[in-house]
Specification:
The protein contains 7 helices and 5 strands, in the order ααβαβααβαββα. The protein is of the alpha/beta class. The chain has one domain: Rossmann fold (3-Layer(aba) Sandwich), CATH 3.40.50.
């Protein structure tokens, strides 16, 4: 499937998930900004995919990233970020969300598995009540977009 066909609006995603569930596919959901794709992102995406059959990524819109990370972010626009994610073999669907959290998207998907980073240990994971279970991914030390931006800025 071409990458651009994996980028879906909510209606397309709902139909995609409904079909997958009818085929008894295990749906995994994760989300993030994925501003500058790095090894930490790839590891978390591959980890999430290993937990099921279909991986859906909720992608923060440009406006939600600005609210969460500040006016200098995102570095890459949402259309570019969505296309890069969709081009990854482990990713089956990408859907943008404009809210500060992916709660509404998680309600729509109702995944079997909700994957978040281990930094959520001992915290409530948004949308967990709409997922079969939550699995935490061990983060790769020193791999973050913020660290990468700082490193680039120093050069």
């Amino acid at each position: 499937m071409k990458a651009k066909n994996k980028i879906m609006n909510r209606a397309q995603l709902a139909a995609f998930v409904k079909k997958a569930k009818a085929q008894d596919k295990k749906i995994v959901f994760t989300n993030g900004c994925f501003d500058i794709l790095h090894a930490g992102h790839v590891s978390s995406i591959e980890f999430a995919k290993s937990k099921g059959d279909i991986l859906v990524i909720g992608l923060n819109s440009d406006s939600s990233i600005k609210r969460l990370k500040g006016p200098s972010r995102p570095v890459n626009k949402q259309a570019d970020r969505a296309l890069v994610l969709a081009a990854l073999g482990a990713v089956d669907a990408v859907c943008l969300f404009g809210q500060d959290t992916p709660l509404e998207l998680i309600k729509l998907v109702r995944p079997d598995i909700l994957v978040k980073g281990a930094d959520y240990k001992n915290k409530e994971v948004v949308g967990s009540q709409f997922a079969g279970k939550v699995v935490l991914f061990p983060l790769l030390k020193g791999r973050s977009t913020t660290n990468l931006i700082s490193k680039i800025s120093l050069q």
